[in-house]
Amino acid sequence: MYRNMTENTYRANTKVIRIGDRVIGGGNDVLIQSMTNTRTEDVNATVAQILRLEAAGCEIIRCTVPTKEAAEAIAEIKKQIHIPLVADIHFDYRMAIAAMEHGADKIRINPGNIGSGENVAAVVKTAKERNIPIRVGVNGGSLEKSLVEKYGGVTPEGLVESALDKVHMIEELGYDNLVVSIKSSNVLLCIKAHELLAQKTQYPLHVGITEAGTVTSGNIKSALGLGVILYQGIGDTIRVSLTGDPVEEVKSAKLILRNMGLRKGGIEVVSCPTCGRTRIDLIGLAQKVEKMVEDIPLDIKVAVMGCAVNGPGEAKEADIGIAGGDGEGLLIKKGQIVKKVPEDQLLSVLQDELLHWNE
Ligand code: SF4
Predict the structure, then answer these.
(1) Does residue 2 form part of some domain?
(2) Do residue 195 and residue 319 come from a single domain?
(3) What is the secondary structure of 14-28 as a DSSP string?
(4) Which of 56, 119, 139, 235 gets the most CB atoms within 10 Å of its CB?
(5) Which ligand 1 atom lies nearest to the CA of residue 276?
(6) Angle between helical axes of 156-171 and 117-130 (0-180°, round to 10)
(7) Taking a C-beta distance cutoff of 8 angstroms, is the pair 85, 112 a contact?
(8) pLDDT tens-digit profile of 50-74?
(9) So what's the pLDDT on residue 312?
């Protein structure tokens, strides 16, 4: 039995929060976030990157706001993009206020690193006036010394206590339009911390494995961590954090949500690992197929198999597939062999079938 991801999950019961024109929490879709790596002050570069991310499937974008110029740039950036923008603030509470005044749809702060309680109160006052959600973000790397000492290191309990302290600080100021995140680059610690946190708060959770690494290791750590957390019904927005092109983060996040049964749409490509029976360039072909299907708006499974022994059988499990032979391959559609195709035409024949799928 597969677990039904929509019933009895934490995320079905989190508080509904509006971020720009999107809604998270309360069982709404888990949304995909990424973060720009341009200088936010450079409006053209930042807009260009956000538009690429939007095209890839990014649904909420975060930009760092370290300067007054970056805060001012938000107004111009927002005119040219189509997804909510989150301002990421560290240290200077005035940047949080300026970002909101210039149209940020949400701000991300760690109330522990923006100075006195008065600074936090000033930020909360502006957020309250404009009804802008605040993400309270706590990272393992910047956990307070007192909590590190109390728990004997950076622990799930310490991270959760730190996050909830900050949440209570804002609640005491009369504001509860909040999202919470706790991040660590340690996958197991991150999983445990989310399990604890989900039991203790009903605010939506933004989930990610932070500083996960380069594209390969970051994807593996993110898929493991997010997979286990999402499977437990925890998480309302996600970010795959990669040292690489942020577009890769979005592609990976989409695959994770899709494989967790939390997102429909898009073509799933299954392909065999190749073996001594393979007689065509299956590795190259599978990569080309994966790229080719990216922009085709179908919700089907495509199989790319290496040989005529297991290939046809496996390809029959998919909606459409190709099974390699020697210098040629079979096109298999809905379980039936349709025709034999020379190797160099397999990609174009498959593409043609997909482009005319509903005809
Ligand atoms: Fe080998 Fe064929 Fe299986 Fe691919 S489908 S791994 S080529 S036996």
Answers:
(1) no
(2) no
(3) SPPEEETTEEESTTP
(4) 235
(5) 1
(6) 60
(7) no
(8) 999 999 999 999 999 999 999 999 9
(9) 65
185 lies in the same domain as 203: yes
Q: Is residue 4 part of a domain?
A: no
Please answer whether residues 150 and 158 qualify as being in contact, where contact means their C-beta atoms are separated by less than 8 angstroms.
yes
Residues at CB less than 6 angstroms from ligand 1: 272-275, 277-278, 305-307, 309-311
Q: How many residues are there in the chain? A: 359
CATH of the domain at 345: 3.30.413.10
Question: How much is the average pLDDT of 196-200?
Answer: 96
Domain span at residue 324 reads 268-355
Q: What is the pTM of this model?
A: 0.91
Give Dmax over CA atoms of the chain in angstroms.
73
Nearest atom within ligand 1 for CA of residue 307: 2
CB 158 within 8 A of CB 209: no
Asked if 240 contacts 190 with a C-beta cutoff of 8 angstroms, the reply is no
Could you read off the pLDDT of 151-178 as tens digits, one per residue? 999 999 999 999 999 999 999 999 999 9
- Whether the per-residue pLDDT at 259 is higher than 50: the answer is yes
Total number of domains constituting the chain: 2
